[in-house]
Amino acid sequence: MVRMLTIIPLLFLLTGCWSSQELDKSALVHGVGLDKSDGQLRISVEIIKPTGPSEQGGGEGGGGNGQNILLERDADSLIQGAREFIKDAKRRLYFEHTRLWVIGEELAKDNFIDYLDEIRRDQMFRLNSYLFITEENPIDILGTSTLYEDLSSAEIVSALEQTQYIAEFTSVKMYEFYKLIEGPIPNAYLPIIRTRKEKGKAITSIDGTAVINTYKMVGKLNTDETVGLNVLLNKVKGGSETVSLNDKEMISVEIKKLETEINPTLDGNQLEAYLNIEIEGTLADNTTNRNINDQWISKVEEEVSNQTEKYVRLTLNKLQKVIKTDISGIGLETYRKYPKQWKNVQSEWNEIFSNADIMIDVHTNITHQGLINKSVEKNHKKPYNNPYKR
């Protein structure tokens, strides 16, 4: 009897969630775009349709196709815009599922960090969402055609999860971005996303990196320079590198491991840094007619090392001489090595970095050459080289 009296009150606690929200009465936002518009903030959202293709969106810039709805509004702040969207969506917007934020370049060149403040203050937003910069209207990114997913936002995020197979772009989550700009050096980097035509349709393409200095975008890195940045930041976990022994012979090496060690030396305001880069890889493609031997392998290793050094040097030249902003990781290693001296150089660090002497040493080791030693003999004479001879 006593047990029954204990269990019965507990049953009233299992009746459901008092704060639950019905899906067919919600507007679940998966992607958000922000840009400037006549002194205000232009907000774009991609919403998933909860009930089916017959339901249509509306409002300023409203539209969408397939399983998404696109809406666009101008407001003074993100939270005000979220409230104003109720007039168009006829539902309250929920951002718990937002995985993608696209910042227009015009806004990025301003102090755009202030407009993201709400994301950290409201528990509705996710700090593990991804950030991008675009030269285009953010709603054009959110409204592009998809290849696999129903939502453009979901497809872009799924592409970022493949960074282990390519070194030509980097991904940055919201919490990682804040960690960078609130660190010893208030500089950061964000991937750039564009649209391009593919068989008459616009699709998204991640191409290049935006450089952030003191909360503003101050420059860009192209694709090769982004590869160099990823090498500097130890973010290359895979991918391939193609080199040539001459104008016709191309060889590809699949990267299995790449580690960069930064050793800075700070003397007053004079900085020197030594970069030691170690690469391990396997032979992937060989378009030459040469047999694979130790001498040939050594030549390929040398070319991979030279090309990697070239990418890193291109990146450092752009950051030191053009953008004059340190996002290379050298400043962070200097701060760790010289914590006491750091307070004397922190305010002028970008200038110190711009005048630094940086040495690069790259070593490549091809650990596996594949299942065969020989290449295809294109001009052999039958039957002497017939692999199926008796």
Secondary structure topology:
Elements: H1 2-11, E1 27-37, E2 40-48, E3 68-75, H2 78-89, E4 93-94, E5 100-104, H3 105-108, H4 117-121, E6 130-134, H5 138-142, H6 152-160, H7 174-181, E7 187-198, E8 201-213, E9 216-221, H8 223-232, E10 240-244, E11 250-267, E12 270-286, H9 294-323, H10 330-337, H11 339-345, H12 349-354, E13 357-368
Parallel strand pairs: 1-4, 1-5, 5-6, 12-13
Antiparallel strand pairs: 1-2, 2-3, 7-8, 8-9, 10-11, 11-12
Helix pairs in contact: 8-9
Question: How would you describe this structure in keywords?
Answer:
390 residues, GMP Synthetase, Chain A, domain 3, 2 domains, 6-stranded mixed sheet, 4-stranded mixed sheet, 12 helices, 32% strand, globular, Spore_GerAC-like_C
Can you tell me about this structure?
This protein is α/β, with parallel strands linked by helices. Helices cover 29% and strands 32% of the residues. It contains twelve helices and 13 strands. The chain has helices at residues 2-11, 78-89, 105-108, 117-121, 138-142, 152-160, 174-181, 223-232, 294-323, 330-337, 339-345, 349-354, and strands at residues 27-37, 40-48, 68-75, 93-94, 100-104, 130-134, 187-198, 201-213, 216-221, 240-244, 250-267, 270-286, 357-368. Strands 1, 2, 3, 4, 5 and 6 form a six-stranded mixed β-sheet that branches. Helix 8 (223-232) crosses helix 9.
